[in-house]
Design a protein that fits this description.
The complex is a heterodimer of chains A (230) and B (188). With 230 residues, chain A is mainly alpha-helical. In chain A, 70% of the residues lie in helices and 0% in strands. Chain A has helices at residues 10-20, 27-43, 54-104, 108-113, 130-133, 139-158, 162-175, 182-195, 199-212, 219-229. In chain A, helix 6 packs antiparallel against helix 7 and helix 7 packs antiparallel against helix 8 (182-195). The longest helix of chain A has 51 residues, at 54-104. With 188 residues, chain B is mostly helical. Helices cover 70% and strands 0% of the residues of chain B. The termini of chain B are far apart. The A-B interface holds A 1-4, 6, 8-9, 12, 14-16, 18-20, 22-26, 29-30, 32-34, 36-38, 40-41, 45-54 and B 22, 26, 29-30, 33-35, 37-38, 42, 51, 54-56, 58-60, 62-64, 66-67, 81, 84-85, 88, 107-110, 113, 117, 120-121, 123-125, 142-149, 167, 171, 174-175, 178.
């Protein structure tokens, strides 16, 4: 056979020469091995797999891959479930809190807003299912909904129709208690209450605003409003 | 009519009965049994385990017999099977077993063989034992079994350049191992 012959030292090559000759096995060993091979043939062993060395290994790899896939899917499902629950919880909490506060100590704003269910968003308080629909909103949708409500409130305040400003403010407070525009909402609430002549409530709202947003850029305006409107 | 047909059939010499695949496989194994044993020893299988591993080689050969191309030489094919089985066995043992210089249980030539020859083979086996199996397989195939590099690459499923590099390194290791063993033997 053609091969590139190594430049092995002669003594090593002569040693390998001895190893190149394959001497016959002892007769007993040969007979025993062949008998075992025949017995294996009769027993039908070794026929099932065409590659006995590789097939079990592949099976193991396939089983491991399947396990990883199943495990990954299970983890994904659990993570999804946890995420859904986490999203639902914050939405349920404000609703529960507002119910509790109404039951124990009627908040001035809640009482004030109840008779004002008129104006542009007069039917907003009836949209109870919205509290459940809110968590399903994407971030962008939630931001749009917040903006829409506060635009209505701001427009009403600008028209000095303070009564019309209260329902969208209340709805925003219910749906987006800690929303991105909460600061803006509370400022509008102070202005609307002051505009309605509910000075005490306006002052309480202004105090709450200062406590909640101590660094707000709207703070000077909020501080002035109750006194000015009075 | 039927008489003519019978005489005609009798005139045509019937083809010799083809052996079944199992018989053909057993025949091939029987022919190469010495080679299988010796290869397993060269690949580092302990003398007491060679018979069992040879049996595994037969079972693997039988399992793959349908895929074997009879036009190709059988020995490199058997070497590939023996190499995989010996490697798996070595992984299972998870440790190198040094047979030492004196190999009492060697199932090679009997006591009638020349002492020098036997010692040389023992020396080579001991030196081979000190070469890592992947490189040892290349060295045994190419330098002892005289298998061309291209075929070594095919059987061991490695690139040609890998064969060359393994061979170069294995030769250096063989020389070093032989020198070390001789030195150790002389100092005893």
């Amino acid at each position: 056979m053609t091969s590139f012959r190594p430049p092995l030292p002669p003594e090593v090559d002569s040693l390998l020469d001895h190893e190149r000759d394959i001497s016959p096995l002892p007769a007993a060993v040969r007979a025993r091995s062949l008998a075992r091979a025949r017995a294996a043939l009769v027993a039908g062993a070794g026929r099932s797999s065409s590659r006995p060395m590789t097939a079990p290994r592949r099976m193991r790899w396939a089983a491991a891959a399947a396990l990883v896939c199943v495990g990954g899917a299970a983890i994904g499902a659990v993570a999804y479930e946890v995420r859904v629950r986490l999203i639902k919880e914050p939405a349920a909490r404000p609703a529960a809190r507002s119910v509790a506060s109404v039951a124990t100590k009627p908040a001035p704003t809640a009482l004030a807003e109840a008779p004002m269910a008129e104006g542009p968003v007069a039917d907003a308080p009836t949209t109870a299912p919205d509290t459940h629909a809110a968590p399903r909103l994407s971030r962008a949708d939630a931001a749009r909904a917040e903006l829409r409500l506060l635009k209505q409130a701001r427009a009403a305040v600008a028209r000095e129709n303070y009564a019309a400003a209260m329902p969208p403010i209340a709805e925003h407070g219910r749906r987006f208690k800690d929303g991105r525009l909460a600061e803006e909402r509370e400022a509008l609430r102070v202005k609307a209450l002051a505009g309605l002549g509910r000075t005490d409530e306006a002052q309480r709202a202004a105090a709450a605003f200062r406590a909640r947003f101590p660094r707000s850029v709207l703070l000077p305006a909020v501080g002035r409003m109750p006194a000015r409107e009075r | 009519m039927s008489g003519v047909a019978v005489s005609h059939l009798r005139l045509v010499s019937a083809p010799p009965p083809r052996p079944s695949p199992d018989e053909a496989c057993l025949d091939a194994f029987q022919r190469e049994l010495d080679y299988v044993f010796r290869t397993l020893r060269r690949l580092g299988t302990a003398p007491g385990e060679v018979e069992d591993l040879a049996q595994e080689v037969f079972l693997a050969l039988r399992g793959a017999w349908a895929e074997y191309d009879a036009e190709r030489p059988l020995r490199p094919y058997l070497f590939g099977i023996a190499f995989r089985i010996a490697s798996a066995h070595q992984r299972k043992r998870n440790r190198e077993v040094s047979f030492g210089v004196i190999d009492v249980g060697d199932s090679g030539p009997g006591p009638d063989a020349a002492l020098e020859r036997k010692q040389a083979r023992v020396l080579v086996l001991a030196a081979l034992e000190r070469i890592p199996l992947p490189r040892r397989a290349v060295l045994v195939m190419h330098d002892i079994d005289d298998v061309p590099v291209t075929q070594v690459a095919t059987v061991l499923k490695i690139p040609m350049f890998t064969v060359y590099s393994r061979l170069r390194k294995a030769r250096r290791e063989l020389e070093a191992a032989l020198r070390r063993i001789v030195k150790e033997t002389n100092t005893r």
